[in-house]
Structure formats: C-alpha cells, structure tokens
Design goal:
With 244 residues, the protein is of the alpha/beta class. It has helices at residues 42-49, 71-76, 93-103, 108-121, 137-149, 167-182, 194-200, 218-225, 230-238, and strands at 2-11, 16-26, 31-35, 57-62, 65-66, 78-81, 155-159, 186-190, 203-208, 211-216. The strands form 2 sheets. It has a 6-stranded mixed sheet, sandwiched between helices. Helix 3 (93-103) runs parallel beside helix 5 (137-149). The protein is globular. It starts with a strand and ends in a 6-residue tail after the last helix. The mean pLDDT is 95. Bound molecules: adenosine-5'-triphosphate. This is Sulfate-transporting ATPase. Residues 2-234 form the ABC transporter domain.
Length: 244
C-alpha cells in the first residue's frame, strides 16, 4: 500500500511549484499508472516517495509506515527503478546486485534463486560478470530492474521503466508487474506510453502542473470525461496547442 497525503514540493526558492497538494492511495495488489506531460511533476513525486527529495508539506505512507518518521523501515519496503539507469560503471553486474542484496539483507539462498531467475529471463547470465560500464542502456535497465526486485519489495516504484527496453524486455517487465501485484504487492509507475497504462493499470492518475487532474479506473475516467480514448482525455486535460 502506498498513500500520499497533501504532498507539495517547490523548487527555486518557491518559484516553481512542481507538486501541489497531491493525495493518492494505491492499494495492495494494484498496478497504478502515473501519467502527465513533460514537467508535470511525476519524477519529483516519485523522488519524494523513495526518500530522495524532502517534501515541503505532506505525508507519505509506505505499507502503513510514515516515511518521515521511520525512513529506514519505509525504504526497506520499496524497490525503486529511477528514470535513468545510472549505476556504478566500475562494478561488475554481479557485484552491483550482491551489493544491493547486502543492503537489503536478502538471505543467500533466496538471493541465489532470485538472481538465477531474473538473470535468466533478462538474458544477463553471461554479462553479469562484466563491468557495468560496458553494458548497453537496455542491459543497465534490466540490471536495475533485477536489483529492485531482489528483496521482493511490497511497494515497487518505477519512473518511466519502459524507456530503452526492446519489445521482449518490455513484455517481460509487464509480465513481472502483473506477477508482482498478483502476490498482493503494490506497483506504481510513471509512463508516457498511454497504451501500456490503458492495458496494464488497475487505476491511473493524470498529473498536470503539479496537480492531480484525473484519478480512477480507466472506465471511471472515461465516464467522467465522456471520451472514448485515454489519449483524447489526456490531450484535452493537459492542454497544449490545438490538435487536428
Ligand atoms: N532540480 C530542479 N530545480 C528546479 N526546478 C526543477 C528541478 N527539478 C524539476 N524542476 C521543475 O519541476 C517541474 C516538475 O518536474 P518533474 O521532473 O517532476 O516533471 P516530470 O513530470 O517528471 O517531467 P518529464 O516527463 O519531462 O520527466 C518542472 O517545471 C521542472 O522544470
């Protein structure tokens, strides 16, 4: 479970209000899509959820734990995939994964089993012995995904996870997301790919200029806005130049 209560964050001494009084509840067993145009406040929200940015106001609950009051306990519950897979280039893949396994205290036998599974499906079994600096963008992304899942986090947070993945890897990721929520875990991810959000998510929110402007199941959002497609709703709600 993930809950955001009246979350706000400004930059530039208060001149840029990136996130403006956002409240959301993502339930257990739910895949939640976080949509919004460039600069809407998605990454800022996600960085606050994972504890990389301090909110100006508001509360974040991770599986019922207040992130501000007990940051370590809350962060133990999170698996995080950032928008860019900037990982330690001077480590080998397996060194990086074992480092994460140590940080999250994943027992040896469970770690071995999970690593074998993810490295097999992501076709990283051989590459994991090489320096991360030699990896392609997609390989780094798959390594980060493996690392984020190593402790089987109850709350899996991803910022634009599909970027740079080939169709096979994107398919695998969608399958992993479905499997994760089927275990009763929570998946929260931002995306610009509306088709993915439409097909995969139980519920969605659209953020624009820091504010949530739509939230609910796809059917609820379509009904509220009396439009046939999420694309039309998204484009209409988020404005911009007139469309053909
Ligand atoms: N470090 C920063 N300093 C000042 N302003 C920032 C900073 N980071 C983000 N912003 C501003 O905050 C707003 C929200 O940015 P954010 O990166 O959260 O949006 P986003 O929805 O993730 O965008 P994108 O889809 O382009 O990644 C934007 O106006 C952005 O310019």
């Amino acid at each position: 479970m993930l809950e955001l209560v009246n979350l706000s964050k400004s930059y530039a001494g208060g001149r840029v209000k990136a996130v403006d009084n956002v409240s959301l509840k993502v339930r257990q067993g739910e895949i939640f899509g976080f949509l919004g145009p460039n600069g809407a406040g998605k990454t800022t929200t996600i960085k606050m959820i994972v504890g990389l940015l301090q909110p100006d106001e508001g509360t974040i609950l991770i599986d019922g734990i207040n992130l501000e009051k007990d940051p370590l306990a809350a962060k133990r519950k999170i698996g995080y995939v950032p928008d860019h897979p900037d990982v330690y280039e001077k480590l080998t893949g397996i060194e990086y994964l074992n480092f994460l396994g140590d940080v999250y205290q994943v027992p040896a036998e469970i770690r071995r089993e999970r690593l074998e599974h993810y490295l097999e499906i992501f076709e990283l079994k051989d590459a994991v012995k090489d320096l991360i600096g030699s990896y392609s963008h997609g390989m780094k992304q798959k390594l980060v995904l493996t690392g984020a899942l190593l402790h089987d986090p109850p709350v899996w947070i991803m910022d634009e996870p599909m970027v740079g993945l080939d169709p096979r890897s994107a398919f695998l990721l969608k399958d992993l997301m479905a499997g994760h929520c089927a275990k009763g875990h929570t998946v929260f991810f931002s995306t610009h790919i509306l088709e993915v959000a439409e097909k995969l998510c139980h519920r969605l929110a659209i953020i624009n200029r820091g504010r949530i402007i739509a939230c609910g199941t796809l059917a609820e959002i379509k009904e509220q806005h009396e439009k046939e497609t999420l694309e039309r709703i998204f484009l209409e709600l988020t404005g911009g130049a007139p469309l053909p």
